[in-house]
Amino acid sequence: MIPNFKDHAANERTFLAWLRTAIAIVGVGLTAAKLTGAHMPVWSDVAMIGSGGVVVLLAFIRMQLLRKRIDAEVSLDASGTNWPDVVLAALVIALIVLTGIFILHVT
């Protein structure tokens, strides 16, 4: 049996949720651009895909940090701020806002 299996499983489920979020945001942004038929600069597609890649990278870093904390013999405290969580949440909110602005601008 894997030590702390429930914690590791929850950590990986959270990682997969961040991946789904990144894929959904990038997919909605790129699909909205293509369906409207508006001429969009190439940099906007690259920026959308790049920001999704940043979300995936930060989610991976978060998963690795939490994996080390779970495996540590020291008791975990809930008082510390996990910086990847803060950055991921801010980036996802920014992507949602930018996608909304883009959709409003095109229509």
From TrEMBL:
It is a multi-pass membrane protein. Keywords: Membrane, Transmembrane, Transmembrane helix. The keyword Secreted does not apply. The chain crosses the membrane at residues 15-33, 45-66, 86-106. GO terms for cellular component: endomembrane system. Residues 6-64 form the DUF202 domain. This is DUF202 domain-containing protein. It comes from Thioclava pacifica DSM 10166.
